[in-house]
Write a structure and sequence with these properties.
Blueprint (H helix, E strand, L loop, with lengths): L2 E4 L5 E4 L8 E3 L6 E4 L9 E4 L5 E3 L7 H12 L6 E3 L5 H4 L2 H8 L2 E4 L1 H7 L2 H12 L21 E3 L5 E3 L5 E6 L8 E6 L3 E3 L6 E2 L5 E2 L6 H12 L5 E2 L7 E2 L1 H26 L5 H12 L9 H19 L6
Parallel strand pairs: 6-7, 7-8, 8-9, 13-16
Antiparallel strand pairs: 1-2, 3-4, 4-5, 5-6, 10-11, 11-12, 12-13, 14-15, 16-17
């Protein structure tokens, strides 16, 4: 069981209920919904939805490709992957896609924008550059030969589409902009398990909430409210342990929204003193980047903060807000 409690400081306390040896866990009684826990670093769980076709939700970073290959082999027990479902096109969700497609020959489903981006050679090189930037964190498993190449059999899916797993189960596709313009969430029915990618926000290793409105703050907040309104039974985010129970999940969405609002206001205050998003990002990084508690590298953290400052500047600098 995945249990999340909200502490007075607004952080999450995770209790996975797993034994130290249990890397593979099932989210349904029929053992058709599988989570592969990233036990080494804890930030990249992977999800498999089994049915007449087997779906993998996202595929993580290139440095984890060999680990993921071994984990998938263990979890699938001789079965294959028919479809890779992409929540969006960011490097940490697609880095291992070519490597795994060469093994499993799967189709790739994503939003129109995701398909367009992954078909662009320059953007693929940016994705590869960002994966190479993780070498210092993954020196023990880093393989420079693993690159994102042009994917085969890319197919566009979008809002309202339903992907049938079998006669009783299907995946509902939900447009989820805000984190990025290309973002989709997936709701597995009738289990009511939500796979939001990063559209529901993220949690750092120290349990703090990490707002990630890289596309639009306004859309990000609207998406948080929309996803909370689905009242999923299980929330299965891309960079944290899954969350069970309506009370826990609603508390998560509330805190995620509050954290985004707090950061937006902090960015606005900084922008009132400086119009330089990079200077603001560097200043914030000096105060909050601590290796071991923040996912990714310092450079990536600074670029993320810069992107957030640019969104706030674009959407609110000349607008009366709150």
């Amino acid at each position: 069981m995945g249990l999340v409690s909200v502490e007075s400081g607004g952080k999450l306390c995770y209790k996975s209920g797993m034994t130290s040896q249990n890397k593979i866990e099932y989210l349904d009684e029929q053992q058709n919904v599988i989570v592969i826990h990233d036990k080494d670093r804890g930030t990249y769980p992977m999800y498999i939805l089994k049915g007449e076709k087997n779906y993998l939700v996202d595929c993580g970073i290139a440095p984890r490709a060999h680990t993921l290959k071994a984990d998938l082999k263990e979890a699938l027990q001789g079965e294959g992957i028919d479809v890779l479902l992409l929540t969006h096109s960011h490097f940490d969700h697609v880095g291992a896609a070519s490597f795994l497609q060469d093994i499993y020959g799967f189709q790739v489903y994503g939003s129109y924008e995701t398909v367009e981006m992954l078909s662009n050679e320059d953007l693929r090189e940016m994705i590869n550059h960002n994966n190479r930037g993780l070498q210092e964190l993954y020196e023990d498993v880093f393989d420079p030969s693993i690159q994102l190449e042009q994917l085969k059999d890319l197919q566009v899916i979008g809002q309202g589409d339903k992907l049938q797993l079998d006669s009783t189960r299907y995946i509902e596709v939900i447009a989820s902009p805000g984190h990025s313009s290309c973002a989709l969430s997936y709701l597995l029915q009738p289990h009511n398990i939500l796979f939001p990618g990063d559209s529901a926000g993220m949690i750092e290793k120290d349990g703090s909430y990490k707002p990630v409105f890289f596309g639009s703050f306004k859309q990000y907040q609207a998406t948080l409210n929309m996803l909370a309104g689905l009242h999923p039974h299980i929330l299965a985010p891309a960079h944290a342990h899954y969350i069970k129970g309506d009370e826990n999940i609603q508390a998560y969405f509330q805190k995620a929204g509050e954290a985004a609002l707090e950061l937006k206001d902090k960015m606005l205050a900084s922008l009132s003193r400086s119009q330089d998003p990079m200077a603001i990002a560097q200043d914030l990084a000096e105060k909050e980047f601590f290796p071991g508690t923040v996912m990714g590298t310092r450079d990536a953290h600074i670029m993320n903060l810069r992107a957030l400052a640019m969104v706030v500047k674009r959407e609110f600098l000349t607008t009366t807000y709150r």
